[in-house]
Amino acid sequence: MKKSMLSILAIVLGLIIIAFPMVGLIGAQAIIGVAVLLMGVFLLISGISEVDYSPSRGIATVIIGILILILGLILLFSPNTFAFLAALTIYLAGILLIIAGLVTLIGNKDSGFSFWSGVLGIILGVIYIILGTYARDPMVLGALIGIWLILTGIIRLLDN
């Protein structure tokens, strides 16, 4: 039951992130801030639920989730910080996807979900950094995090 709820949460958050760029009225700061914030929410909830199965992985995921939540709030509500970090934000979000993928991959090598979700996080993190270097549209980058959440949710649902 807990696995299904987390899977659905990931899919819903991914759809929300993808929907925001479609609106076209939200600035890059809000798009990236909301995407990072929702990524942090998912990692925090996922980490809390994983503490029962793997305490070290659960605690690491909770800590990363909290850090990403704080970063998302700062990006969302502090225009000055966003302006200062604008160039680094793209790389930072990609690095955070890679870190989340590594934590998931290393935490439990026996689970199909952990392996494929970890690999997916690492691959999408690298793609995020590459696209961030050349793409000038923040909607593409926000959608990439949404795609990661949706695919992670689907993989988690399909994992036995």
From TrEMBL:
This is DUF308 domain-containing protein. It comes from Methanobrevibacter arboriphilus JCM 13429 = DSM 1125. GO terms for cellular component: plasma membrane. Keywords: Membrane, Transmembrane, Transmembrane helix. The chain crosses the membrane at residues 31-51, 58-77, 83-106, 113-134, 140-158.
